[in-house]
TrEMBL record:
<protein>
    <submittedName>
        <fullName>Temptin</fullName>
    </submittedName>
</protein>
<dbReference type="InterPro" id="IPR055313">
    <property type="entry name" value="Temptin-like"/>
</dbReference>
<keyword id="KW-0732">Signal</keyword>
<feature type="domain" description="Temptin Cys/Cys disulfide">
    <location>
        <begin position="23"/>
        <end position="118"/>
    </location>
</feature>
<dbReference type="Pfam" id="PF24784">
    <property type="entry name" value="Temptin_C"/>
</dbReference>
<feature type="compositionally biased region" description="Polar residues">
    <location>
        <begin position="100"/>
        <end position="109"/>
    </location>
</feature>
<feature type="region of interest" description="Disordered">
    <location>
        <begin position="90"/>
        <end position="121"/>
    </location>
</feature>
<dbReference type="InterPro" id="IPR057626">
    <property type="entry name" value="S-S_Temptin"/>
</dbReference>
<feature type="signal peptide">
    <location>
        <begin position="1"/>
        <end position="24"/>
    </location>
</feature>
Length: 147
């Protein structure tokens, strides 16, 4: 029974990890700086598809950043200067807009090393340990790069 559960969980995770399967509100990714470049610390080599959601694939309950974004109504100076995940790095610094000057459509001050504004950079809480995720799903990154 345990083996069957593990196989079912793995197949479900593989389906959910297929790009484009579960995008929820991708337009919100345009409303934050580097919305398509946020590294997902729980899935090495991947970007978070749902930066404002608890699920990295988007949809479902909002995370702390998603709630703050919804309350602010967009990328505001207050949201930019806040540190939603409490890791000591402001949302703006995490998303490449440390001076909080970005507006939609502009290229942010920084476009590399973009970290997740709802996941603690120093101690990420992941449903699947990153090493285990990489062991099972790392091959799909190679597949995507070739396509
Ligand atoms: Ca932070
Ligand atoms: Ca963070």
């Amino acid at each position: 029974m345990l083996y069957l559960s593990a196989v079912l969980l793995t197949c479900t995770a593989m389906l959910l990890d297929t790009p484009g399967v579960a995008d929820a509100f991708p337009s919100n990714r345009d409303r934050i700086p580097n919305g398509y470049r946020v590294a997902d610390p729980c899935r090495p080599g991947r970007t978070a598809q749902g930066v404002g959601h608890k699920s990295p694939y988007g949809g479902g309950p909002l995370n702390v950043f998603g709630n703050a974004f919804a309350a602010a109504g967009g990328w505001t100076s207050a949201l930019c200067n806040a540190d939603s995940d409490g890791d000591g790095v402001s949302n703006g610094a995490e998303l490449g807009d440390p001076s909080c000057t970005w507006t939609q459509g502009q290229t942010p001050d920084r476009t590399t090393d973009i970290t997740h504004p709802a996941i603690n950079n120093n101690n990420p809480s992941c449903p699947i340990p990153p090493w285990l995720w990489k062991l099972f799903f790392g091959w799909t990154i190679i597949f995507e790069q070739q396509s």
